[in-house]
Request: fold
Amino acid sequence: MNYLSLSDYLKTKYGTKVYKLSLTSGCTCPNRDGTISTGGCIFCSEGGSGDFAAPFSDLDKQIIEARKRVDAKIPSKIPESERKYIAYFQSFTNTYGDQKRLMDLFSKVLKYPEIVGLSIGTRPDCLTDEMIHFLAELNATKEVWVELGLQTIHENTAKLINRGYELAVFEDAYKRLTAAGLKVVVHVIIGLPGEDNSDILETIDYLANLKPALFGIKLQLLHVLEGTKLAEMYKTNPFRIYELDEYCELVCKCLAKLPKETVIHRLTGDGPKKLLIAPLWSGNKKLVMNTMRKYISNY
Reply:
């Protein structure tokens, strides 16, 4: 099976491998601060799904620290002057709060010549028309992606995980973002409590039929992490967790349904090992990716 990976998309567009710098905007989330809820989504750790991001500090310092971590993995034969990066604001809701401060932050990060694009993780209910217009202006100079945590189209599951918004809110945000010319990346979690393969594939079918076509998707294995409400649920009343082979087979079915032009940004995802309760096999990244490649090549 062939699919368009993020690595291939970036390499084709920029002529070289492009790396992500995980940064922090200093935002919180309306699902945590009491605006919608105080508990957050039940799967979300204290790091706000950004456990590998740099701690919040001055942007220059964050970029230096993030580059140290990333550059350690880059072959030394690639000169620093030729290295390219995407600035990725992942933790919490990065369009929530002081709009001017955030606009200044996003503008500043794109002024770094080595940073070729910006990826912003947020909620569809936290996108003002003003922010969308601003991001569209930035997108005219360097590539901007907006990442939305949909997770599922099923309202009963959305309520269970305490997502805090209905599907119609996502649909409205998607319409406004794409109308402004922005690229949207949607997060889907595979393995949410109460969902079976048919439920997950219904979510994929929905995304596969979006108009205009979806730019990118992240398929995320559900991780049960210590300190989350999901962990409490799992310890009290354990729910079904996918085995590695089951998960890889289901991912292949998801990929087969998506448009060929949709960029696959993630096939599984990592959970911090010190917090990981289940599935423990997901902690062996090499095993996971080798098994995934085998399933995809044979599908």
Q: What stands out?
A: Confidence is low (pLDDT under 50) at residues 48-54. The chain has one domain: 4-298. Residues 23 and 89 are 5 Å apart (CA to CA).
